[in-house]
Structure formats: structure tokens, C-alpha cells
Amino acid sequence: SHLIKKNIARYPLPPGPPGFPIIGNALQMPLEKEWRVLADWAMKYGEIMHLSVLGQHVIVLSSADVITELLEKRSANYSDRPRFPMAGEMIGYSDYISITPYGMYHREGRKLMMNALAARKTTGISDLQESQALQLCRRLLDTPADFRSHIRWFVCSTAFEFIYGIHVDRFDDPIIQSVETVAEDFSRTVKPGAFFMDTFPFLKYVPDWFPGARFKTIVKECRERLVFARDTPYDSVNMRIKEGVATPCFAANLIENYPNPSPEEDHMHRCTATSFYISGADTTASAIGTFFLMMTLHQDVQRKAQAELDSVLEPGTLPKFNDRSKLPYIDALIQEIHRCGTVVPLALPHRTTQEDMYEGYRIPAGATVIANSWYYSLHSGLQERSNNSRAVLHDPLLYSEPETFNPERYLSKAADQYQNPDPRAFAFGYGRRTCPGRLLADDSMFITVATVLASFNITEAIGMDGIPIKPDANYLGGALSHPAPFECRITPRFPEVARLITTASATRDVIG
Ligand code: HEM
């Protein structure tokens, strides 16, 4: 093996944009919407590229083939995460599944999550999602203009109820606000290069009083918020178990199944519970946000989806999970939402454990490996440019006219099985790091999309001047991408909607 290693060392690194001595491509790395620039570079340098950022090897993968080969087939070597000195070690996120190094701790945490989610149909999670979707509609009925905070309420309260058995009625509940901030902190600080700290790890040793050391204060605040969000709800479940009044939930199950945890186990359980929230709420909210945005922009798609619902549902009823197999257009719509509004455009960075070879190129050990899953831009200007860039969900070879929002592309698949692959195969990441919450997120999307479209029309908001406002479909964000704030008009499809929602939720409450 020594010989093989020596031989690999002779092979070149993959091609990439020329950098400067020492800092490499650091100055060329955009701080916003990196996926667009990386997609442009990929057109020039190919599906596997090498960048050097302050001595760190970064390998960018931009096609389904190379991603499948490396991140999936060779996943044993591509499943570590880069270290984030600030976010990971100083704030403490490295104990949470999404960026914890590959190994036992990671495997155990994932297993706990996957087991809990595999049983979702029988343990009441699906029932919870159905009733939460009705609550969401009731809120949309009462205060439609606040739809963005209703979406956030929906994902947060569903997560809280499932993890801690705590019912949260209001979005401005202090505990929800605190975990929301933690999720934002995470997205901001985990983005590679977002913070100088993670680019210049030695700054970790700068004393607090040093001018410009404000990041130390930020780290301290982030850390305190994280500890609060991790322990407050978990402790309350512990308390309720002692008092004999706990309701079934993920945390209560853990506490009951492991009656005498070691301090390490207890810490791991707390972090795993919080991981559901940190990784699951913001992501799902972004995808639901894209749903509202796309419905505002594409009335024809909305009409078709509603026509399908009307043809399948008994009059006077709202959708349930049982209806899903009869709603192929709704499923195609969800696929197109994942493609166009890619929530995690660059997945999360992976890291190689050992040196590797691919098509004559050397991939160093410890390299950061980024998969460019992104597709999307409705931006004028970028629309032309986007034809020249390359990334999986945006690859014209896979999805013809990738700029067009068109759910039908998935329905005519029989014509060519290699065209229009299900975007969920990319949108949830890759290999042994693929999103463990995928099916839960997919259920949330289905029940929200179906219930909202059965009940409401979503159209452009009307400005003060009486003219409809067309949202400009811009995306913002750190590691996660969100539709920029926009307005839309949400009106009941027919007069009995209010009664329908009330009756359906009342039936649910009785069953629950
Ligand atoms: C639309 C919703 C969602 C999207 C688009 C999404 C996407 C992703 C992506 C792209 C990754 C990175 C995979 C990789 O590194 O290759 C990921 C990781 C992860 N997601 Fe999700 N996710 C969503 C919802 C959820 C939900 C609901 C949960 C919780 C139940 C969740 C929990 C996680 C966790 C724990 C990880 C880290 C996995 C690991 O590092 O092993 N996600 N997700």
C-alpha cells in the first residue's frame, strides 16, 4: 500500500481556477450564493474541480455521476465532516449529528433518529402532522398575511411536540424563539468560510479584550443559547417523567429506554434530540416557503394540482396521508419544489479520510468535498447565465429547460428513464451523511401542500395602488437557502372552507 500511496502522489489534483500563493482561491470565494459561482467554474473546469483555500484542499463535485461514484459508492472514505474550529469546537455544534466527525458517536446518534422516524406511521407522528396541517390552515384563514410566521410555527411546533411532547401554541413562545435563534446561528456559522475564525483557526487563541475580538462575544452568546435550547425542554421532559405526567415523545422514549445513562450518553441523547430541531425545522420551512412562492408565480400549476385534489377527495373532506398514492401531480409538484428551491444548495461539506484517485486525479486525505446540488434562479440576467453553468439539479442534460418550473417533467418519465431523475435523490444529500429526516420532511411537504391547496387559492398580493405585486423569487442564506421575504394573497377556495377545517380538526382532536 506504501507503493500505491507513492504512486497516487504523482497524479495531478483535479483542475480548478488558478489561485494566489498561500491564500489560494480564498479571495475568489464568494461569500453569498457560492453555488452560482461554483456552477460557473464547473462549466470551465469540469465535474470535479480543485480549489485551494488557505492551504486547505477543497474538491467540488458538480455532476450526478461523480457524486454517486465518490460520495455514495465510496462512502466509507467520504463521510467525515470538515472541522469547524469556531462553530464546531468553540460553540459546540460538533456534538450534533450534522457536523460531528464520522465514527461511533455519529452512527449511534443517526441510529436513534432513524429508528424513531421509521416508526412514524405507527407512533402517531403522521397523525400529528395531519392535525398540525389543519391548524396551519386555520391560521392562514385568520391572518393570511402572516403566512411566513405560520409556516415557521408549523415546523417548530410539530418538531417540539414530536421531540419533547410539548404543545406550542404561539410562534412567539420564548422557547421557540430561543431554538429559532440557535438554528439561525447554526446556518450562519457552519457555512464554510462564513466566519474568519474558521478560515484562520489561530484566532481561537486571541484573548477577549483584543480589539476586533467581537467574534469571541458572538461565540459565547451562541454557545449559551445552544445550551439553553438543548437542556431546557429536555429537563422538563425528565421532570414530567418523574411526576408521571409525560406524554410519549422522542425524549421521553430515550429517557425511559436508558434509565441510567452515563454522562456521555446523556449528553449524546440531549444533542440528538436537539438535532431534530436544528436540522429539521429551518430546512422544512424553507421548502414550504418555496411552495407558496411557486404557487404565487405559477397559477397554471396550482390549478392542475387543485383539479387533481378535487378529482380524488370525497366532497367536503380534506386530504390525508392515505390519499397520497392517488395524487401523482402533487408528488411531481413536490419534486419540482425541491429542484428549484434547493434548500441546501451545496449539501453539507463532506471530508475524505484517506487519499483517493478518480479518473487520473488525486484527491488528498482530509480534503473538504462539496457537492453542488443547486439549481435555481428566476433572476433576470442570471437566467441567461444559468444556461452556461453546471450543477446537478440544474444540469440541462438531466432536466431540459432547467429554468422552467414544470412538475410535468416527472410525469412523462417513461419516455427516457435517465431524464428528470427524482430531485429528492440529490436535495437530501449523499451517502452515509444523507439526510436522516428525509421521509419526515417529505411527509410534512405532502400534507402541507395538499391541505393548503385543497383549501386556498394563492395569488399575487395587491399593492396599495391596486396593482398585483409579482414576487422576484430571490434566495438568501448561509448553508441553507431561503426564499427572500415576499407577499402573497391567500383566500379560501369556497365559503365552507372554514367549517371544513374546524370539523376536520375537531374529529382529529377527538381521535387524538
Ligand atoms: C426539506 C427538508 C430537508 C432538506 C432539504 C434536508 C436536506 C439535508 C441535506 C442536504 C443534508 C446534508 C447531507 C449531506 O451532507 O450529504 C441534511 C443532513 C441532515 N438532516 Fe436534513 N433536510 C431536511 C429536513 C430534515 C428533517 C425534518 C430532519 C430531522 C428529522 C433533518 C435532519 C438532518 C440531520 C440530522 C442531518 C445530518 C446528517 C449527518 O450528518 O449524518 N433534516 N439534510
Condensed summary:
With 512 residues, this protein is of the alpha+beta class. It contains 18 helices and 12 strands.
Small ligands present: protoporphyrin IX containing FE
Mean pLDDT: 85
Characterize the overall form: globular
CATH superfamily: Cytochrome P450
Largest sheet: 4 strands, mixed
Assembly annotation: single chain
Describe the structure.
- The chain is of the alpha+beta class.
- It has one domain: Cytochrome P450 (Cytochrome p450, Orthogonal Bundle).
- The protein contains 18 helices and twelve strands.
- The strands form five sheets. A four-stranded mixed β-sheet has the order 1-2-6-3.
- About 5% of the residues have low confidence.
- Bound molecules: protoporphyrin IX containing FE.
- Protoporphyrin IX containing FE binds next to helix 12 and helix 17.
Topology at a glance:
Layout: H1 2-8, H2 34-45, E1 48-53, E2 56-61, H3 64-73, H4 85-91, H5 104-118, H6 125-142, H7 147-164, H8 174-190, H9 196-199, H10 214-243, H11 250-257, H12 263-297, H13 299-312, H14 328-340, E3 350-351, E4 356-358, E5 361-363, E6 368-371, H15 382-386, H16 424-427, H17 438-455, E7 456-459, E8 461-462, E9 468-469, E10 475-477, E11 481-483, E12 489-492, H18 497-511
Parallel strand pairs: 2-6
Antiparallel strand pairs: 1-2, 3-6, 4-5, 7-12, 8-9, 10-11
The protein binds protoporphyrin IX containing FE.
